[in-house]
Structure formats: C-alpha cells, structure tokens
Design goal:
By secondary structure, this protein is α/β, with parallel strands linked by helices. The protein has one domain. It is built from 5 helices and 7 strands. Strands 1, 2, 3, 4, 5, 6 and 7 form a 7-stranded mixed beta sheet that branches.
Length: 236
C-alpha cells in the first residue's frame, strides 16, 4: 500500500483526536510553562527575521526526521483580530529544527489574522500571546515528535494533526508541502494552519463539494484534492 493510501486508512480507522479544547490551567501563572516535561520555563526570544520575503515563504529549509523533542514558546504578543468571541493562542517550535522560530510565529499570526481565515464571519476573534491561559497552541515539530504527540492517531511521519490543545504542524510538510500543490508552498502553509486550527474549533473533515470548486479548508488536502482546486482559506 502506498504512503498516502496507507495514511488514509490509518487516519480513517482511528478518527480525529478530540477537538474539544479547554483553556490551559497553569500550575504557575507567573511563568511561561514549557510544552514538554523536558523543557525549561523560559520562552524562545528570537530576533525577528529581517527578510523582505512574505511571512508564508520564509524559512524554506531542509526536511529533518527528528529534533530535540523539546517544545518552546516563541515569545511575542499580537493585536486582537476579529469581532467575536476571543480565543487566545500561542506558538511553539521544537528546539533543534532548522529555520527561524520567529518566521513560523509570523506565518501563524499572518494566517489567523487574515479576514479569509476563521474570523471571516464575525463570530470569532484571535489574539496571539506567549503565556497562559490559552485556548489552543500552534506547534511546529519534527515528524518524530508529531507522531509522538498525535498518538494514537497514526500520522506516520508524514501528516500534521490536532491533539489535545495542540495544532501539530509536521516540519516536513511545512518546508516542502505536497506534490499536488505544484510548488505552491504559500497556499499549502495557509491551508495546514487553517485546517488544524479548524479542528481546535471543533470542525471535522469534509469532502470536495464538486470538481473545479475551491477545496474546503477542512478537506484533507494533504492526501489529495478529489477534483477540487487547492485552497488555503476558510472563506476564499
């Protein structure tokens, strides 16, 4: 069985990890709590990228199979975007990954602040923060760490997932996308963030509505487009 077909079977057999997200209850509200028991309590403090490259095209680096296993919060706050119920989120990056953690944080904030994302209908507002309480986390991690965090969902080193309170983004997909996006990494990156955050909001998977239509953001576009056109946005 090919890699993609095997993953479809594995994911359909297990089902989506629960998308009911509750605010984090920190044991020490005064500190940034590490994402894993191995991490320290201090967040990453990277310098912002000076590159004029658009946020969704920064840190296009090599794929890696694994890294340190330690997830760290990327420091930084953003403005409230949207007009509805406020959800706070933070961004984490696994230590040891190539690329600039600030670039990933900028990409996440760029996507979730876009009016085509989940704030499009006025029911939700988002704010990026770097301390609890938060409603969900968006995390860039190596395939090995994604597999560990997503278990029992079988991501097989290839796909991303939502598990617990984390939208786990597979580093290999983040830097390379998938072949059927025809090199359009910017659209794929917008898609994978919006898709996994959609699970955090309680949305499940859907199919292509009709050939030639934009693929819904909750369609599993990593596996294929089913005749739809690639799309990264909730309301394109």
């Amino acid at each position: 069985m090919g890699t993609i077909a095997g993953l479809i079977v594995a994911l359909s057999g297990v089902g989506m990890v629960s998308a009911n997200v509750l605010p984090w209850e920190p044991s020490d509200p005064a500190s940034v709590v590490p994402a894993t028991s191995q991490g320290s309590s201090s967040p990453m403090t990277p310098e912002p990228s000076p590159s004029p490259v658009p946020p969704l095209l920064r840190s296009v680096v090599e794929e890696v199979p694994s890294a340190s296993g330690e997830l760290r919060v990327v420091e930084g706050d953003g403005e409230v975007v949207g007009e509805g119920t406020l959800l706070r989120y933070l961004v984490e990056v696994e230590e040891g990954l190539p690329g600039d953690p600030a670039d990933f944080a900028a990409a996440v904030e760029h996507v979730l602040s876009d009016p085509r994302s989940w704030t499009h209908d006025g029911t939700l507002a988002f704010q990026r923060v770097d301390e609890e309480p938060v409603d969900f986390r968006v995390t860039l991690a190596s395939p090995e760490t994604v597999d560990q965090q997503c278990a029992p969902l079988q991501t097989n080193g290839y796909v991303s997932c939502f598990s617990g309170e984390r939208a786990m983004i597979n580093q290999n997909r983040w830097v390379s996308g998938v072949p059927h996006f025809d090199g359009d990494l910017e659209t794929y990156r917008a898609y994978v963030i919006n898709h996994e955050v959609g699970h955090a909001l309680g949305y499940g998977h859907v199919d292509c509505p009709a050939p030639g239509e934009p693929a819904p953001v909750m369609q599993q576009q990593t596996f294929g487009l089913q005749g739809c056109e690639k799309n990264g946005w909730v309301s394109p």
